[in-house]
Amino acid sequence: MTDSGEFDTRPVRAFLPGPDGRDQGSDGSAWPGSVPAMAQLLREGLEIPAGLTVLVGENGSGKSTVVEALAEAYGLNPQGGSALGQSFRIRPSEPGVGRDLTVVRGLRPRWSYFLRADTMSQLYTYLEQNPGRRPERLHELSHGEGFLEILRTRVNETGFYLMDEPDAPLSFTASLGLAALLHDLVAVGSQIVVATHSPVLAAIPGARLLELGPWGIRPAAWNDLDLVVAWRQFMLDPHSYFRHLL
């Protein structure tokens, strides 16, 4: 039950630090504990509210590392895909500390999936070559079309979803479509964590925004995000930026 008396239907209530994770998070000299957001996650854990949580921050702020750790902790393949696709492997690059986090689970979802942008091409090959699967020709699609096909076929029912930069290959119009999809998934009870550089996804109504940076992880409002402020200033006067760059 929630504080309001409603039944808590969240698949995940929180990721809590275990003894090993707490030790690693307090060591600021070793990666991933040297990343402030990861150090905070390993030290304090992270509550996951119902609906959509959006992680934003500069390159190197730890967004991808945090999402990969959450995927590993939950039991999803940290290199992308579903819990059933554990044989999909490329060069290991994950923090490897997800096993040190304790997942406080709620209702078990029917489906869960980790959409990870930087491994998507290799995932296409795995899906095309995996025997026993229906034929798919993902490599024959454009980069953006392949993403949209994965969204159409794998992110299409109520469940628990982790996404790392799902907007990366998408046009502005396609990003709006992704925003609508995420909003609709939340409306039917899905729980989603998205790491993104997109002000479009960060603007989805009802999303909880967390900004990552040298401070670690902190709640934020859309208008105050460095991401939004920078884009707004650039769109108003792009030439002022290029005068300093070129």
What can you see in these coordinates?
The strands form two sheets. This protein has a six-stranded mixed sheet with strand order 5-6-7-3-8-9. A three-stranded antiparallel sheet has the order 2-1-4. The radius of gyration is 18 Å and the shape is globular. Strand 6 (160-164), helix 6 and strand 7 form a beta-alpha-beta unit. It has one domain: Rossmann fold (3-Layer(aba) Sandwich). It has helices at residues 19-26, 36-44, 63-74, 120-129, 143-154, 172-187, 199-202, 226-236, 238-245, and strands spanning 12-17, 46-47, 52-57, 101-105, 112-116, 160-164, 191-195, 208-213, 216-220. Helix 1 packs antiparallel against helix 2 and helix 8 (226-236) packs across helix 9. Mean pLDDT is 84; it is low at 21-26. The termini are far apart. It is an alpha/beta fold and 246 residues long. Helix content is 37%, strand content 18%.
Q: Topology of this protein?
A:
Blueprint: E1 12-17, H1 19-26, H2 36-44, E2 46-47, E3 52-57, H3 63-74, E4 101-105, E5 112-116, H4 120-129, H5 143-154, E6 160-164, H6 172-187, E7 191-195, H7 199-202, E8 208-213, E9 216-220, H8 226-236, H9 238-245
Parallel strand pairs: 3-7, 3-8, 5-6, 6-7
Antiparallel strand pairs: 1-2, 1-4, 8-9
Helix pairs in contact: 1-2, 8-9
